Amino acid sequence: MYSRSSSRKVLDGPPSISDFTIEGGTELTIGNTYPITITLSPSSDLADCFYAFDTETQHTFSDDAASKSQCTELLGISDKTEYTAKLQASGSAGSFNLFIQVVDREGRDNVRSKGVTLLLPLPTLSILEHPISYFKHGDPVTLPVSTNWNQNDKEQYSLKFVKQQHPPSEIDGYINEATYDQQNDQYTITAPNSIDSDDKNPIYIALIKTGSDEIISPQKIENIFYCIEPKILSFKDSNQNDDYQYFAEQTVSLEFEAKIFDDDATIAQPQYQIEEDNAVDIILEKKGSKYTFTYTTKENIPKDENIKITLTLTDKAGQSVSKEVVIHLRTSPHIYGPTFNSDKSEYSTGDVIVLVIKFENFDSREGKFMYRFNKDDFKELDDSKVTTLSKFRNILADPVSYQLSIPSPENIQEGENTLEVKLAQGNDQPESNVVSQKITFVKAANPEPVDPTPEKPIPTPSPKGGLSGGQIAGIVFGVLLGIVIIVLIVYFVFCKKSQEKSSEELEESGSGVEV
Questions:
Q1: d(Cα 324, Cα 235) in Å, to the nearest integer?
Q2: Which class is 17-119 in CATH?
């Protein structure tokens, strides 16, 4: 006789929560997620887990989603006697009972509760995108900050800051307080009233709750620069002779030293202004601690005078600084109005270019005329090629006019060329300004060799409104021929009358002779 045993699966009993714990304690910040550990006795095969916050001592978990929230990441450990899961604190701040409901795979459930406190999350600061900004002393600075108060009372917090190289390690390191604009929900600070050196350090900010030592949401703001107050330390003409006088179109070299943001005046919108004229942008050259630039005097200086040159710098914060220097100008010959004195529109090798130049500020020139083509070296024009037109037309003419006969260059450049003319310094007269005239050169189809000997001089084109040498010779010849003809006519008339008179006298003498 024997006994037969049968085996069958024994179901676990209904779940029973003996305890549950929350990682971090019972003070929960709304919006945060917290791990929980659920202990069962006896073990149970859980299928789900739910939770709810309620001020009441009892809570009914219904199928209504509003009555519960589902735990996440439910995981059984220790032979189904312990489970872990996660829940998120939600609702409003205050004291609540946290109810945990577990459900096994048979649909049986169990609920257990524990008292918790829901806290509002701390306010947060975030930095907005912003360009590099430059400020001068005393400027208001709006911080590029966005604030999320998370239902906290704004008045319980202050934003404190410090501008330095490294972040503060303690709350006392935030030594300045920003001003809160409630209407626009923004914070502003003020640049120091005196800035002795450039400040490119970042700004460290944090929210500080009244009565608390906690540094809340510390942040770092970069690219807010404080600019030193600019100064031009010296500004002078680089010519050390204070009595030096500049003539027309002469280059003046000016130099200065400056104390300015980034120690770079080249980016400080440098400009100069002559007396009350419009300001002119300039390009500076830096040589060590000095900056240099040039200015060209005007082309017409009719009298000795002093002019004021004002230098202005404007830094990136909009701070401007100016300084003046005075230079002396000397009366200079002024030439102008170069015009062609011939009908030619094109020239080739061997041609003579005849120009009329007007001259003023002196009774007559003392220096030699100089010319050049296309920025070559200036050449002296022989005085034999210069004619003072006003002496023959009107001795009191003002200004004086000079006719220049300028030879074409041996190696011409076909097309448009630039001819420049000036008067060199002579005796008490300084150098004049430079005038220019466009010249068109073409290559002659059959150029004849030019004989520069006295026997065959270079022909001079006829001036506008004047006569060529051949025309004048023809007129002279015609006049002489006319005079000769008149003399001959007078001679023949005189001879005829003389013959008639002689005949009459013979007739009278013959009538008294007897035959």
A1: 7
A2: mainly beta
